[in-house]
Amino acid sequence: MARLEDVAREAGVSASTVSRALSRPGMVAPATLERVRAAADGLGFRVNPAARALITGRTGFFAMLVPDLENPFYAASIAAAQDLAAQRERRLLIAVTDGSAQREQAAVHDLEEQVDGFILLSPVAGTTELKDLHRRKPVVVINRKVPGLTSFTVDTPGGLARIYDRLVELGHTDVAYLAGPPGSWMDRRRRATLAEHAGAPGLRVHIRGPVPPSFTEGARATADLLATGCTAILAYNSLLALGVMFELGRCGVRVPHDISVAAADDMAFAGLPGEPITAVHAPAPDLGRHAVAALIEMAGDASGRRPAGRTLPTTVRLTATLAAPRSAGQAGPVTAGGERTGRRDDPAGQAVDPR
Q1: CATH H-level superfamily of 156-282+315-330
Q2: Record's PANTHER family (predicted)?
């Protein structure tokens, strides 16, 4: 195993210069830094995190807490964050919380002394708890806005609104929204956007959920969605949408002839063969990159300055999974065979929240 002295000899510099180059690169001339890094790479030398922490007070590690690894939106953010961290000579420790406040708190407790900061993806802790953590270690939040913290989100509510507008243009008056996980900040924003549309005369949004954002839950919820009498279904994420599409096909309900379908992201079916599902395209990788860049800036700035967060724009891909509903005489709940029964109205004409 290569030692610090081996790198110094290979680069033709002192061991102290190698130490500065690897722990405080800004204090070393660019040509010397390049020579030291080339020597370290050639010899396979890696800095001991514990030793670096003693010298600099920093470990070079960040913790990224995520609800799960199955959601492709999260996976894309994680992969991009890891890539940028590696380019900046940092490492990410990934902790899966299952969307549980208790597991999230336990992960913070276990990792706080081992890392230089936290990236929290869709955290469920309260605002006070998150701010308390930020007072101890730099924190960046993804997919949720927290006052006083650097937060990065994408405008999926605006994208869903564009899809809903298109459904209205096509003549739909009853739309079902399959909501996301309990406690989701982003899901509340999407519900609020759809509720604004449902306030218009004659427009109804039937909200079902919350449910875990998975393929299985999408398939399981489909019968209840059809029972609302909706002519279109919007899903919280692409995994739910795929589950809905699978169950519709299994039951003989045709998309879009019998019912239109769209999703709030396109991550799970990007690149799949066949007709694309109408969806919001959200730049999930950019969230990971922005979060790492902001955390590096905060970890290296003793002044406590906080980089500004951003809401990233989205685009919408409208495809043939949206179509005009059947004539008014055929409207009503779709059965498993694709037929419609008598119409089942929602007298409130507003967004319905079953919780």
Answers
A1: Response regulator (3.40.50.2300)
A2: HTH-TYPE TRANSCRIPTIONAL REGULATOR GALS, LACI-RELATED TRANSCRIPTIONAL REPRESSOR
